[in-house]
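agent> step 3/5: call structure_predict on target 'C-type cytochrome' (Pseudoduganella aquatica).
agent> reason: downstream docking stage needs a structural representation; sequence fetched in step 2, passing through unchanged.
tool.input:
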Amino acid sequence: MKRFLMIGMVAVSAFATQSAMANADLAKAKNCMACHAVANKLVGPAYKDVAAKYAGQKDAEAKLVAKVMKGGSGVWGAIPMPANPQVSEAEAKTLVKWVLAQK
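tool.output (status=ok):
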């Protein structure tokens, strides 16, 4: 039983790591990483800072999905975030969930 539990824990951990990497790969593929990084501000805010700013907000996911797709301005300074028509709504949701999970 313990062995089965350990195997299950390893599988879940591997899946979570693979999923996190897949979302980072999606961010790269959709050119998000041209302006953002996980830990440091580039043109736009670091993803860990976005996660901290929106932590605990019930509407954060919907608000950020809209920003990814339509763009926005004024929240992080004078430089606007452009719209991203190459990102589908499903991809935007995946990306936003990943961003909000950053620490």
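agent> step 4/5: record observation. The radius of gyration is 16 Å.
agent> proceeding.
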